[in-house]
Amino acid sequence: MVRRTKAEADATRQALLDAAEDVFHEKGVGRASLAEIAQAAGATRGAIYWHFKDKVDLFNAMMDRVTLPLEAACRRPDAAGDPLARVQGTIQSLLAIAVEDAHTRRVFEIAMYRVEYVAELGGVRERHEASLKRFHARLTNDLALAAREQSLTLPMAHADAALGLQALFDGLLQTWILGSTPFDLQRVGADAVAAYLRGLGYRLQGDMR
User: Model confidence at 68, in pLDDT bands (50, 70, 90)?
Assistant: First the structure.
């Protein structure tokens, strides 16, 4: 028997990850089976277990191929300057990734909308919840900084304002991904975020000229 080369093993691994992405997207993570993923990749279940411990390990490896937008935004070091501009820029960059990078969008869609959080996927849920908490903490911090800089008392707690902004982002993204109402995600997103911040009483950079 000819021993497989590293290149062949890597090619098999990538084929399994591609197949997992397709099957997870079509059936949902909980309902997808390793046998279906192996068949879609033209491989065997043994090949899956050679490269991955279980379905959760396969799922996490699929996500790791593409840095999820939310996690990327949370890992980005804080930039100096206007915290409101940072809030707007972070959300706008996330929306731009969703629009411009089809592969990242597909994995993002699976992570957000194709995961059924059953017991075997507890680790996946924990990863998703941790990303959401970091994103919320980042928004809360920037909104609080901006309020102090503008000597503004918000009509609600900073954490609650951040939660509302996060819900606005999630709703826009979900509506756009589902495609029931086609619209320009980046333009509408920028306008909606600006309107929300002004509604809280903030003065944006363009308002101060």
Answer: low
